[in-house]
Design brief:
11 strands, 294 residues, six-stranded parallel beta sheet, Rossmann fold, single chain, alpha/beta
Length: 294
């Protein structure tokens, strides 16, 4: 069993990006500029956006944090997005989710210029991804593909089971794993809350990618020997013994499943660190896209 170290790989990617940024600056160009829009004071979102800002500094990007009040009107948020779309100094930006309930997330994401949509959530980019065209890939699935690639994990012809069908992870990773290429060329099955006898699928899987959000859902009796486990779950579980009052748990019962796995991602330290690294990689791409369009 080998643990897939997302923290190590993400640091390697950041070093590669830092080198590219130095090359950009040496040619007299400005460094990439990433903006993040944060609505409200959600604790997890504040932490996540803070990590993005510090990662930008680490690789030499410029970053801007746009903090907006929880009670902002939808029309005012749309106006702010239009402003970011038109700002030639900003190469890419994200709108941190979730948004307050009075705001239509779909309407907001559709308002983002596809060439600045470094989260890869706009339908234009999602469609390009499905057609295997060069575009922004949602950061978490992008990170999973990069881990499989860098660990040289064979995916061609393998039976991959994706647990979960969200637009952020489950659906895009199922498409990516099925596309021609390395990694890819898998036979993919997507299972979810309505799947009958879900275990019959996971027991035959060569690769399991779980993005369900239920701590400890995947048990050792649900997998076969030699399986590759990619655990995307990040759930805060109350723990009075922790100084923070909670611990982070994945979808997989790590201690039991690792006995059977050939490769496995830990939580934390697996897929999580890759998400920010791939967001930075998307921002590099956005800079080149905008350079060609302005």
């Amino acid at each position: 069993m080998e643990i897939i170290d997302g923290k190590k790989i993400s640091n390697q990617i950041k070093e590669e990006i830092k080198y590219e940024v130095q090359n950009i600056i040496s040619k007299g160009d400005k460094p990439p500029h990433l903006a993040a829009v944060l609505v409200g004071e959600d604790g997890a979102s504040l932490t996540y956006v803070g990590s993005k800002v510090s990662s930008c500094k680490q690789v030499g990007f410029k970053s801007t944090l746009v903090k907006l009040p929880e009670n902002i009107k939808e029309i005012d948020l749309l106006s702010k997005i239009a402003e970011l779309n038109d700002n030639k100094e900003i190469d890419g930006f994200i709108v941190q989710l979730p948004l307050p309930k009075h705001i239509d997330e779909e309407k907001i994401l559709l308002a983002v210029n596809p060439n600045k949509d470094v989260d890869g959530f706009h339908p234009t980019n999602f469609g390009k991804m499905a057609l295997n065209m060069k575009t922004f890939i949602p950061a978490t699935p992008f990170g999973i593909m990069e881990l499989l690639k860098r660990y040289k994990i064979e995916t061609s012809g393998k039976n991959t089971v994706v647990i979960g069908r969200s637009n952020i992870v489950g659906r895009p990773i199922s498409i990516l794993m099925n596309l021609k290429g390395i990694p890819g060329d898998s036979t993919v099955t997507v299972v979810h809350s309505r799947t009958v006898n879900l275990e019959s699928y996971t027991k035959n899987a060569d690769i399991i990618i779980s993005a369900l959000g239920i701590p400890g859902f995947v048990k050792k009796e649900m997998v076969k020997k030699g399986v590759v486990i990619i655990d995307v779950g990040i759930t805060r579980v109350k723990d009075n013994n922790s100084t923070r009052g909670y611990v982070i748990r994945g979808d997989v019962d790590f201690n039991s499943v690792k006995e059977k796995a050939s490769y496995i991602t830990p939580v934390p330290g697996g897929v999580g660190p890759m998400t920010i690294a791939m967001l930075l990689k998307n921002t590099l791409l956005s800079k080149s896209l905008l350079k060609n369009n302005y």
